[in-house]
Amino acid sequence: MIKMSNLPPTSQMHSVSLARELIMLALLSLLWGASYGLIKIAVATITPVTLVGVRVLIAASLLWIVVLYRRCHIPTDLRTWRAFCLQAAMGYMAPFTMITWGQQFVDSGLAGILNSTTPIFVFIITLLWTRQEQVSFEKGIGVLAGLGGVTFLIGFDALKGLGSDVFGQLAITGATVSYAFAMIYGRRFHAIAPEVTAAATLSIAAAIMLPASFIVENPTDLTPSRDSIFALVALATLSTAAAFVLYFRLVNTLGALGTSSVAYSRAAVSVVIGVALLNEMLTWQVMAGFIAILIGVAAINQRAGAFFKYLLRRPAGKAAL
Length: 321
Known about the structure:
Number of strands: 2
Mean pLDDT: 76
Helix content: over 70%
Distance between the termini: 6 Å
Order of helices and strands: EHHHHHHHHHHHHHHE
Largest sheet: 2 strands, antiparallel
Shape: globular
Number of helices: 14
Structural class: mainly alpha
Radius of gyration: 20 Å
Strand order of the largest sheet: 1-2
Strand content: under 5%
């Protein structure tokens, strides 16, 4: 627990709570950041629609076990389940299929840059249409700073392929727009436990995507490799089941725009892991990208920016873990 003796009790609780949410945002960044590589491995021997169908089925099954074990309330009204269906379409079925299909033609680096534009679309949709969150000039600067940071981290060489496989790139960009709408729409589930929302929407996606795989593909003829199977299981359990529980929680604590900043922070998390565990070099380009991402995330999450400023101003010995 963090003690902040020079803050009033309410501010102290607020800051500690925000710190916890930011840690969860970093964890979500890690789980989703790993999904690009896992998809690339899995789709090598598993067709896209089948991959998505099995992925959401495994994730939904695991989450229902959690829901039943925790005895969470499960809504039964038709209106909520209609909303679940729309969320499943925008948050899973459309983007998962487009990304999985698109990554057959687009390198993972460029795919990461294209998919990191989610905050831009959340910002534009919120500004011009929904207006359910406050948008500001500072948040707009944060959106651009974060995108620039991701480009620095991944490398400008990844942009050389831009325009060469247009349909694959359009598919990934379309998935990004779909994610943006899903993040904004997902705030309506604030009164429902996040594991229930994730389990219900993933189940709907599985009920549609699995039959669809037999229509557009032929799953029974597949001979997936061991690496593809391992990647699929990891993708379903970690990057889907665990990640979407965090996602639905954060949408209601940090907001749609704040949660969308995960598109930037997952790139920063990958850099930290590379430096700490893989002995990768910290070049000026990596440092510039990392700093730009931190600025972007802090600007988008303005409360986070205030929290970081507090930490920097805090005298030594005033806080303890």
